Amino acid sequence: MFIQTESKAQGWRAIAILEGRGECLLFVGRSSKNVRDEYVDSFNELLEADEKELVTSIQLQQWQGTPDAGRWQFKNELRVPQSAKLARAVAAA
C-alpha cells in the first residue's frame, strides 16, 4: 500500500553552517522561492542568540535523485540575517 502525504515533494532546504558545530536545518520547502521567503523567520525563531553568532553561512540546497535514494546538492549561498552579523561584530569588538 502506497500512502502519499505530500502533493509535491519538499525538494529544497536552507541549512545554517555553524562555526565549529556543524550545521542546522532551518527550513524545508517546495521551491527555492518558498525557502528564500521563509528561511529568515525560521532563523530568528529556531536559533538562540549564541547560535546565531556562530552562523558563518546559509546554504540553499536541492534534493537530487529519487525520494529514497539521492543527496542534497548545494545550489546557492543565502544572506545571513543582519542580526547575526551585528552580534558577531559586537562580540569581536
Tell me what the structure shows.
There is one protein chain. The chain has helices at residues 32-46, 49-54, 82-92; strands at 12-18, 22-29, 55-66, 69-78. Strands 2-1-3-4 form a four-stranded antiparallel beta sheet. The relative contact order is 0.20. It contains three helices and four strands. By secondary structure, it is of the alpha+beta class. It has one domain (12-92). The model has no long low-confidence stretch (mean pLDDT 84). The radius of gyration is 15 Å and the shape is globular.
Annotation keywords:
93 residues; alpha+beta; four-stranded antiparallel β-sheet
Brief synopsis:
This protein is an alpha+beta fold and 93 residues long.
Q: Quote the distance from N terminus to C terminus.
A: 60 Å
Radius of gyration: 15 Å
Strand order of the largest sheet: 2-1-3-4
What is the overall pLDDT average? 84
Query: Number of helical segments?
Result: 3
- Work out the count of structural domains: 1
Taking the sheet with the most strands, its summary is: 4 strands, antiparallel
**What's the shape?**
globular
Number of strands: 4
Listing every helix as H and every strand as E from the N terminus to the C terminus, the arrangement reads EEHHEEH
Helix content: 25-40%
Structural class: alpha+beta
Percent range for β-strand residues: 35-45%
Poorly predicted sequence stretches spanning 5 or more consecutive residues: none
